[in-house]
Amino acid sequence: MGARLILLAGAVVAAASPPSIAWAHGVGVRGDLPVPASLAAAGAAVVLVASFAALAALWPRPRLAAAATGRPVPGGDRVVGWLAWPLRLLGVAAFIAALAAALAGPGDPTQNFAAVAIYVGLWVGVLVASAVLGDVWSALSPFETAAAVGRLSRGHHPDAAAQPLSRAGVWPGVVLLAGFVWLELVHPTPGEPTVLLAAMALYAGVIAVGALWWGQGWIRSAEGFGVLFRLVAAMAPLHRNSGRLRLRWPLTGLTRVEASPSTTALILLVLGATTFDGVTRQPFWQALAGEQTGWAAVPLATAGLVVTVAVVAGVYWLAMREGARITQRRTGELAHAFAHSLVPIVVAYAIAHYFSLLAFQGQRLLALASDPLDAGWNLLGTAHWSVDYALISPAVIAWVQVGAIVLGHVAGVVLAHDRAVALLPGATATRSQVPLLFAMVVYTIGGLVLLLRGG
């Protein structure tokens, strides 16, 4: 993307070097670092500020949107064609296996295919895969497969997906995803098979009934995982355009994300929910919760989730309000225009909080997939696999956690700056980004402190 981009990359790397010295002796697992969490957080903040300065000096014009289409991948269309229906069948099989495991599998959530598939494979694995490989969920989703079969039966191309309902936006998806994060973070027994069975039946029922009533556009509006994963997939280097597989610079696809209140709300919901996961690991929260367990703890946990999401959203909204004062634009207009810059932070928080879960319980998922009903099967030859906890050292886990948060926020600063110079003239573009930079510094410090000081 030109010599300026190369110079900018060098400047950002150079800016990142001093804080890395603070971690030069290596880091351990969360809560067991050889340096204070505050020092690591301060170093990360320096990286963000230095990146902002480098962007102001070396990035005077928008660059990302022009690179969002990318170049065709030789032979890529053939590979996608070969994989399309096998992946669809895999997704349907996994959904049926999860339903069966929730109905008749082991009662222990750590040994139940449904629990591990949903909380590890779907919530973490598909999200990370989407950030790297693009929109994989459109192939794996049983709801999209049902819609594709419907299109095929009417003589249409199976990949001619409908657009979200224009009036609803993705608000139905926000509601369903909010229900999922409440189940994950608040419900006293989120991994219990009967609870998961009810949740899966309710989720699938809402999607199916809505699709029958409003058409396939309902799936694109209401299927919360699909809405989230498509947003994340926009930052991937691989994507499909006019039926062709293309390779582009990472992050560039986010410039094409449609700005809307519902999209902004979904991004802030997921960011706030992951933050709340970190809050619940803090000593102050554990002291506040006291001896409350089971359903007695639900009111406090629900309030904590709502307040945390509100605080995360409030920090962003205050930054946008100050930006609106500087630019003489409306707060909502700016908030929706820059919401795409938070998507890399969502991915970064997910990696930071759940990387070790994916690395270790992902191995368990492969074993459980061979015998989802604990019936003595060995369908894939993996039933006897055990989790290798020595596969990744605590030091590597900690580096990935800290690196993900720092790089995710740097990516957010890059996206925000590129959008600012596209919308605003000259120095106003840079000045308008100072409040958002402050918000991202707050997110970075808060995210690292919650992660590194967690119990």
**Helix/strand/pairing class, anyone?**
mainly alpha
Euclidean distance between termini CA atoms: 43 Å
User: What is the gyration radius calculated from CA atoms?
Assistant: 22 Å
> In what range is the share of β-strand residues?
under 5%
Helix fraction, binned, reads 55-70%
Query: How would you describe the shape?
Result: globular
By DSSP, the count of extended strands is 3
Q: What characterizes the major β-sheet?
A: 3 strands, antiparallel
- Low-pLDDT residue spans: 1-32
- H-E order: HHEHHHHHHHHEEHHHHHHH
Instruction: Give the domain tally.
Output: 1
Biggest sheet, strands in spatial order?
1-3-2
- Mean pLDDT, all residues: 88
Features:
mainly alpha; 455 residues
Please describe what this structure looks like:
The structure is a single chain. The chain has 455 residues and is an all-alpha fold. It has one domain (69-391). It has helices at 3-22, 37-58, 76-104, 113-133, 137-140, 142-153, 171-185, 193-214, 217-222, 224-233, 261-279, 283-289, 298-327, 331-337, 343-370, 394-423, 426-452, and strands at 71-72, 238-241, 244-247. The protein has a three-stranded antiparallel sheet, covered by helices on one side. Strand 2 and strand 3 form a beta hairpin. Helix 4 (113-133) packs parallel to helix 10 and helix 11 (261-279) crosses helix 15 (343-370). The chain starts with a helix and ends with a helix.
